[in-house]
């Protein structure tokens, strides 16, 4: 392939998306879910875990690879999978738009709009973006398969399975695939047949049955580690992961954190809030995306319906259970494809009727300016993130050999995340720890000692009832510690913290006695001496099942990472 102007522009768009995502990664505030999905992966590869109760196995390995390469968990590395896959998604959007509309200007415009999406700038976190990377790649090959080369369905199944291993809600795309496949076959491929004969042709054709079995086999094989993991922990421990448990399998260990049933009122509230929020952040993609979907449906109703149904079903399903946020990243992904198409069409019409030659370029410049404001908004949000500010204070002012006591009134996830590589004590452990060092006969020395206290003005991340349950004890702890310490820093944001400094006389090797606390069922950093909830010791044929699961999973990790280079190959070879 010649290195032409289109390829040059596409590389620039990719670099633009990459730079934007790197910048905003340092400033995007953390929420509770992101703490879970960034803490659990820490050292999970060395822990040799086939699965975990939250699923997202493939994402956790991606995250830990990033931690090992980049030197541990930080605001940047926590978002590294989303940065990488979100940036390379530019190429897949280009490929999908080009396959739909056969116009490179449309494909480049769609990619450019996605790279500048204000909604993506704000919510490029958690597991969603990597999952949608593989979902859109699956849709690309599904489209190619519908156009005649049925081998592409095998790749579509493969990439959809990768996506499910990252975020299982994309299973909602399977009914969409089947619906479009049946509709396309009846209306496009067999218009001369009656409905009865078309059904027989579709469901009793040996070639179609064989291809369907191959697709199903590929999909089941890739997700088999999840099934094997749940089979083993159910057999040896009597429970399954959160998602299988929600269907009634195993003990109810997760009642406090499981999603509530789908609710129309929740969907209505989520949808109205999302539309307002999305329009503010991505007005251009929103308006021109709707126009583009209308124009595209007139041009090709099958492929347009595929994208729109995937968007609607995912949004309705997720919006009625958990709300949107990062889960709605699929909306700017899909609408950016349609918005590029409508912008090019409208630009042609405007140029011919009003002799305005720079309409398209003017809109893209406006999109670029709006993205700068979106970046500025994210940077300003960091000033209200107590977790990010605490991270800065800890890594700038507290030495790595210090012992830190955390006020129990501060939400456990915040300091588990900040102190993931440090020794710290939850406040409820302090007096037991004090008895240990006072009774120890080992040689003692002064060790840097810090106390981080929740100050009035907020519940420091807890629900009011949880905060009130621990408040009395925390006040006693503060009264005991503060007379011997001095305040060195203060954080005023969504939560108010005061940081105090002192020293404590303790045995030289006291750090070895500090046990890493658990966070959402697992020890932070997979501390090896911990009792882990889903440990199992397979025997007999289960040993083979377990080994088979690991073989498939490691191959999946390897192949899914190679997909990035495969996408580049697709761009290079696209005719």
What can you see in these coordinates?
The chain has 575 residues and is an alpha/beta fold. The protein folds into two domains: 5-382 and 554-573, no CATH class; 386-523, no CATH class. It is built from 22 helices and seven strands. It has helices at 5-25, 32-39, 44-47, 57-70, 80-101, 104-115, 118-123, 128-146, 152-166, 173-189, 195-204, 206-237, 242-245, 264-299, 301-319, 330-354, 359-382, 386-397, 412-418, 430-439, 464-481, 541-573; strands at residues 403-406, 424-426, 444-454, 486-492, 496-507, 518-519, 522-523. The strands form two sheets. Strands 2-1-3-5-4 form a five-stranded mixed sheet. Helix 5 packs parallel to helix 8 and helix 5 crosses helix 22.
Secondary structure layout plus pairing:
Layout: H1 5-25, H2 32-39, H3 44-47, H4 57-70, H5 80-101, H6 104-115, H7 118-123, H8 128-146, H9 152-166, H10 173-189, H11 195-204, H12 206-237, H13 242-245, H14 264-299, H15 301-319, H16 330-354, H17 359-382, H18 386-397, E1 403-406, H19 412-418, E2 424-426, H20 430-439, E3 444-454, H21 464-481, E4 486-492, E5 496-507, E6 518-519, E7 522-523, H22 541-573
Parallel strand pairs: 1-2, 1-3
Antiparallel strand pairs: 3-5, 4-5, 6-7
Helix pairs in contact: 1-5, 1-6, 2-19, 5-6, 5-8, 5-16, 5-22, 6-16, 8-9, 9-12, 10-15, 12-22, 14-15, 14-16, 18-19
């Amino acid at each position: 392939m010649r290195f032409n102007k289109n390829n040059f522009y596409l590389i620039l768009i990719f670099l633009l998306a990459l730079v934007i995502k790197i910048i905003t990664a340092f400033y995007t505030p953390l929420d509770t879910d992101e703490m879970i999905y960034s803490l659990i992966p820490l050292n999970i590869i060395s822990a040799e875990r086939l699965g975990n109760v939250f699923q997202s196995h493939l994402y956790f390995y991606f995250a830990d690879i990033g931690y090992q390469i980049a030197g541990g968990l930080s605001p940047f590395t926590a978002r590294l999978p989303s940065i990488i896959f979100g940036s390379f998604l530019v190429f897949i959007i280009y490929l999908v738009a080009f396959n739909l509309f056969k116009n490179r200007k449309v494909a480049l415009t769609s990619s450019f709009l996605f790279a500048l999406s204000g909604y993506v700038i704000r919510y490029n976190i958690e597991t969603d973006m990597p999952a949608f990377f593989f979902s859109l790649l699956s849709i690309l090959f599904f489209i190619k398969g519908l156009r005649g080369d049925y081998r592409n369905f095998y790749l579509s199944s493969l990439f959809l399975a990768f996506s499910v291993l990252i975020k299982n809600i994309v299973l909602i795309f399977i009914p969409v695939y089947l619906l479009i496949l049946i509709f396309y076959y009846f209306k496009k491929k067999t218009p001369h047949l009656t409905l009865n004969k078309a059904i027989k042709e579709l469901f009793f054709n040996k070639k179609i049955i064989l291809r369907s079995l191959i697709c199903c086999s590929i999909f089941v094989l890739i997700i088999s580690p999840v099934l094997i993991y749940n089979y083993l922990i159910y057999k040896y421990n009597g429970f399954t992961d959160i998602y299988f448990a929600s269907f009634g399998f195993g003990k109810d260990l997760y009642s406090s954190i499981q999603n509530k049933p789908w609710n129309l009122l929740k969907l209505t509230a989520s949808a109205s809030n999302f539309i307002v929020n999305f329009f503010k952040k991505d007005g251009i993609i929103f308006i021109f995306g709707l126009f583009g979907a209308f124009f595209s449906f007139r041009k090709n109703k099958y492929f347009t319906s595929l994208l729109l149904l995937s968007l609607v079903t995912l949004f309705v399903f997720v919006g009625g259970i958990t709300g949107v946020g990062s889960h709605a990243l699929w909306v700017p992904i899909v609408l950016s494809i349609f918005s590029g198409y409508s912008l090019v069409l409208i630009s042609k019409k405007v140029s011919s009727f009003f002799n305005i030659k720079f309409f398209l370029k003017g809109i893209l410049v406006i999109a670029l300016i709006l993205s700068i404001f979106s970046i500025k908004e994210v940077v300003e949000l960091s000033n209200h993130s107590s977790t990010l500010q605490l991270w800065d204070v800890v890594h700038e002012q507290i030495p790595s050999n210090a012992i830190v006591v955390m006020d129990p009134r501060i939400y456990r996830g915040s300091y588990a995340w900040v102190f993931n590589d440090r020794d710290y004590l939850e406040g409820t452990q302090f007096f037991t720890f004090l008895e240990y060092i006072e009774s120890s006969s080992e040689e003692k020395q002064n060790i840097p000692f810090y106390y981080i206290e929740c100050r009035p003005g907020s519940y420091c991340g807890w629900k009011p009832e949880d905060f009130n349950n621990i408040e009395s004890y925390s006040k006693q702890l503060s009264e005991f510690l503060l007379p011997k310490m001095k305040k060195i820093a203060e954080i005023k944001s969504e939560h108010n913290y005061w940081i105090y400094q002192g020293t404590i006389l303790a045995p030289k090797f006291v750090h070895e006695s500090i046990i890493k606390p658990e966070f959402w069922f697992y020890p932070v950093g997979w501390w090896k001496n911990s009792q882990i909830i889903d440990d199992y010791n397979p025997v007999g044929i289960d040993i083979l099942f377990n080994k088979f699961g690991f073989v498939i999973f490691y191959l999946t990790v390897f192949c899914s990472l190679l997909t990035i280079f495969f996408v580049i190959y697709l761009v290079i070879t696209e005719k």
